[in-house]
Design a protein that fits this description.
CATH superfamily of the largest domain: Aldolase class I
Number of strands: 11
Strand order of the largest sheet: 1-2-3-4-5-6-7-8
Bound molecules: acetyl coenzyme *A, 2-oxoglutaric acid, zinc ion
Number of domains: 2
Strand content: 5-15%
CATH architecture of the largest domain: Alpha-Beta Barrel
Oligomer: single chain
Shape: elongated
Helix content: 40-55%
CATH topology of the largest domain: TIM Barrel
Amino acid sequence: MCPTPDQIETNKEDMVPVDLSTAVKSNGTDRHGDKKGFYARPSDFLSNTSNWKIIESTLREGEQFATAWFDLETKIKIARALDDFGVDYIELTSPAASPESRAHCEAICKLGLKRSKILTHIRCHMDDARIAVETGVDGVDVVIGTSSFLREHSHGKDMTWITKTAIEVIEFVKSKGIEIRFSSEDSFRSDLVDLLSIYQTVDKIGVNRVGVADTVGCADPRQVYELVRTLRGVVGCDIETHFHNDTGCAIANAYAALEAGATHVDTSVLGIGERNGITPLGGLIARMMVADPEYVKNKYNLHMLREVENLVAEAVEIQVPFNNYITGFCAFTHKAGIHAKAILANPSTYEILNPADFGMTRYVSIGHRLTGWNAIKSRVEQLNLELTDEQIKDATAKIKALADVRTQTMEDVDTILRVYHTAIQQGKLKVGQPEVFDRLLDEHHASRDTSPSRTPAKRQRTDAEA
Ligand SMILES: CC(=O)SCCNC(=O)CCNC(=O)[C@H](O)C(C)(C)COP(=O)(O)OP(=O)(O)OC[C@H]1O[C@@H](n2cnc3c(N)ncnc32)[C@H](O)[C@@H]1OP(=O)(O)O
Ligand SMILES: O=C(O)CCC(=O)C(=O)O
Ligand SMILES: [Zn+2]
């Protein structure tokens, strides 16, 4: 496992590369090990985890994120990037929201995107519907709250009014020859009989999809599974789902919905939306890659994910979180010696996703007190130094001792290894002479004025590309 120099990523400080060609091969064959069936559940006849669509709502739900403000140029960039990524639908803010919202909607419809259909999201109201169908969208997503909270405090309408107006709006939109979806906002706090009854009514008059929305993020995966499975037995149309992340279940709920027969999942890039947002696009992709990698890889341009996320992060002035699915800066960084050894032997040991599938890079962090000789050996090989295993273990003991004082940068580690190697070659050092090595290292630093104590670490990590 000795990478060529061109595999060393140069724009990340303190990183050591590991051989990706081996990683890809092993990941492709045994990533799930013996438990593949446990993840995919292909036998579940209701499950759509191998056949589902994304309704990407960064330009609708995402515009409801606290710091979001998109001008047309930014919306177009995001729409084009999502289209390149391959999302099935892009949902836009209601054209009834403001004159600019309407103009943006019309402009995005005229882009002629390659793959993504354009939807807009409106209230269950004829005025909104009339404006929406004039924008050139491929479909309209209609929503109205059905829980008692929203019936009483949001719009003040009862189920009879909701049903009557929904029918009117749906028939109007259908008459324009475009897609129509009807959704019940706050579905999980709505009366089940009310819900099933209105879904059945709108299904009978020919909606393309009904929508289930966990508007306040209260649902758990079991509740989602039960509601969607029940609904699957009541309607023949597609089932769209929308999950807020207030209690951390947004991805798991989307997955449970697909297992129960839902067909569409609403996402936004980085999960941005009202409050702390909805199912993140990248997180859903990560989850679904485990369920059916081929479906996901064939359908979506996964190498685009980081670009789309960076675009949106910049537009709404946030950082991509350190622990973001797939693209977080440490999503594929392995640190502890036990992990590092196994990862270097076969990345599937500690990775369920292959970074190469997303154009990402694997790193092994080596300059810390939790390191082990196997990780150090990989760096020795990358530096083309000839040391025996016994010598590498000896040098590793020194690195660990120094890392007990402070984390060692990649430069520090390389210096230690080079000084150790030269001393061995010149016969100035033997294994098990830590005091001699200390002196040689001090002499080296003194001659170059590069004592680690005088050279503060720029970053507190020492990773190697793996
Ligand atoms: C859970 C969700 O995220 S749903 C999507 C949320 N999206 C938006 O709100 C889009 C941006 N919103 C807006 O620009 C504005 O709220 C507008 C243009 C839609 C409406 O603005 P206004 O007429 O000034 O009303 P306001 O926002 O104060 O209140 C909402 C109105 O919609 C009504 N309403 C709320 N939800 C619905 C619904 N789903 N269907 C029909 N009417 C609804 C309310 O009764 C209220 O009307 P009223 O005060 O005239 O009785
Ligand atoms: O239209 C929908 O299904 C969802 C609307 C929404 O954003 C929500 O209920 O949180
Ligand atoms: Zn929402």
